[in-house]
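Show me any protein, keeping tokens residue-aligned.
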Amino acid sequence: MKNLKLKSARAAKDLSQQQLADLVGVSRQTINAIEKGDYNPTIRLCIAICKVLDRTLDDLFWDNEEA
């Protein structure tokens, strides 16, 4: 499932995939795969992304439709 919330939050911070990747210490391809729903990141990576984007885990990685 695509992570449009992550993509939207990244865009709101005016960050490219490469810039976000550099800030959290992964490749641009990893960020792209997370946004496309092709990769399930570790909790550590999720937390790092949340810190950079000033969002919570619930904001970016919880699917309210499944709750």
